[in-house]
Design brief:
The protein is 4% helix and 50% strand. It is built from two helices and 31 strands. Strand 28 (346-359), helix 2 and strand 29 form a beta-alpha-beta unit. Residues 10-241 form the Rhamnogalacturonase A/B/Epimerase-like pectate lyase domain.
Length: 428
Amino acid sequence: MISFLLSIVVSIASFGAVSNNESVNNAEAINRAIEHCAEQGGGRVVVPCGEYYTGSIYLKSGVMLFLEQGAVLKGVQDIDAYASLKTTLDLSRYESGQGTVNYNSATDPQWSKAMVFAVGVSNAGIEGKGCIDGADVRNPLGEEHMRGPHTVLMAGCKRMKFEGFSVKRSANYAFLGYQIEKSQFHNLYIEGGWDGIHIRGAKCVEIAHCEMHTGDDAIAGGYWERMSISHNVLNSSCNGIRMIMPSIGLDITDNEIYGPGKFEHITSHRTRSEAAVNLEPGGWGKAPGRMDKIRILRNKVSYVLTPLCVTLSDDNTMGRLLVEDLEARGITRMALSVKSWGNAPTDCVVMRRCDMEFDGIDDPALPAWFENRPTDQWPVFPVWGMYFRNVKKVDVQDVKLSVKGKEYRKAWMVDNVKKHNLNVVDVR
């Protein structure tokens, strides 16, 4: 990363930025400061205490944008003040939601608008104790005819660092990244908006010690390689972690994930939390590939729909999934599940020292309802605790399942599982 002992420090105020004036768009002044710093070989561009309205700004290699305590970069309400992503990278493999109002394409000039851009940038980022306020800007031409610019959009970046500051009222995602390598997101506080940190294409990326209260998924994306999500507090009105494209080498460790959401899902207005961890390659369009080396360790989960939902599409396979020391309380409706509805296989699921408590459904007719009903009609699973389908081996040790209230379904079920020892599960 940047050595500030050998770099310059400049203030955006020195380039004409004016604070606390809603009629002034400071983008030009901020971009001049960043450009000057980059031309001098890199360094730190300081945003002093105060509120600075801005449209799109552009990070440069070797430059760290530093938000002093009390400093706020705030988005202007004029949607035309926000540029669209320009890159020569082929990002077509990351498209999702084709044919729906949630179609996401990096080539879409509305979807790819952003407040802060980093394109082909390395050894740069944002830090400090200030804030970036997306100002909840609406775009009638955007996704769902309402979503505005992302707060930070990166493409083809390496060795990026984002640390210490807060992001609030994002008009779409707080962070959207394409093809990001060797980068860190540390000690961030994110509230409101849609997704918190959403990365499509990651290699050696770490998200740690962040706190998020988001209307949509807290952390999302896919095609991750050696991705670490650890020591975060995640609160969402959708999913805590949602992976929509397959990954290899994913560690989800020491997180607290809970519901209901503090901020409502802006589209649906719900606050109910869905899955704590939802791994569903192909869930938003074709995403072929293999998943493997997935580790979910020492996580605490409460008041969500389900602690873990893994669903493979027909274009996917999965190697080994390890779940250890999972503590779940107040699971509101859905069993933990690892499955595919077609024939996509999972090699091995290993569970150790897991303790999960589910809320029962007081309906004595529920078990019979599932007889001869196709899976696409299931509102819940035929069991309340754990469900496995198309898995070669399920190996459990010291796993406890308990249910609150009345429940008439079985605790667990397997379908096309070649080998398992679920009979040793402690059911209460």
